[in-house]
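Problem 3 from the worked examples.
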Amino acid sequence: MIKKRFFKTKNEVEVTFEWPLGSEETVSLAGDFNKWQAEPMKLNKRTKVFSYKTRLPKDDSFQFRYLINESEWENDPVADEYIRNEFGSDNSLLHTKEA
């Protein structure tokens, strides 16, 4: 799940990426906005959700994927769109343009 919070006075969007806890031990987020460096997501044990919050520029698009247990890449099932990557699979795409 992706939550977007638009600010009226700022040229950025607060984005919260979420991944529900299943059998995963670790979940990290990597994308073109962080130079594809896998950033660990925090597990909220009460809500059983891994999350990562960041701010991104408005009116742009960003590619990202989740790294599960440091070995398996997954896309977000509710991404705004998907785009082919150079490895023959798809990346999730996030748009920060307000609808």
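Problem 4, a separate protein:
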Amino acid sequence: MPELPEVENVRRSLAQMVVGKIIASVEVRLPRIIRTPEDTQRFAAELAGCTITSIERRGKYLLIQVPPYTLVSHLRMEGQYRLADETEPEQPHTHVVFHFTDGTALRYRDVRQFGTMDLIPREAPWPEAWPQGLAALGPEPLDADFTPADLYQRIHRRSAPIKAVLLDQTTVAGLGNIYVDEALFAAGIHPERPASQITRKQASVLHAQIQDVLRRAIDAGGSSIKTYVNGYGRHGGFQMELAVYGRAGEPCRVCGTAIEKLRVAGRGTHVCPRCQTRPRQQRAVKPGAPVRHTGGGAS
């Protein structure tokens, strides 16, 4: 699934290509992609004549501003947007086409067919009338008001593994499997460590590494692990810089130890067993016995 860096690159490329274009008509060939309104003919009719004024991003969602509406688009696993001349042949699995008055068309292609679109009036009440996933998002990890203290407050009462907590979009928006693995490695934190065991100092380091990894990935155009391309059809380059993700069995770039692949929070997870020490298991304590605090293992 495209994560924040990939969606941000899609946003930037589309903003350069389609802002200011007027929608002449819309074709919906796979109705289930359109969630709101349920009537796809109404979806198409409401967009006809609208002008795309801006393209924004929130977490992994694209927010295409077409006053008086916002088109909320989630790419899910393999959704792609491409701008093309009307005369160009279409690629297979093109499910929604926005025809513009200038003879070009924005084509939405989705092999897996998991992507979604919601057309929401801009004045609709928040959060009731907006997609639930969008309304529940945590802070943007690159915003100034997302601080190390904020991250610590969001995780320190959670007993789940830190990997699971960071994948939870209500904790922080836009992180997925790739960049959680990369940030945890850079911070020297094992993905199985309970979030409640992360100290304030570790949270500060983790916060810095989340931001650093995301910024570098954005600058590199995102990570093209499978099918990701931006609106120009260009692949990202950050997959060449990944430290642990997708490198099971390869030597750690820091210490040379073989990268391991685990299963954490139901997701394939990559870790260096030397740079990211596995948390120690706490032993059961008999009632009334004194408790000796041994910590949770170095990280």
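Solution to problem 4. Residues 4-135 form a domain with the N-terminal domain of MutM-like DNA repair proteins fold (CATH 3.20.190.10). The two ends are 29 Å apart (CA to CA).
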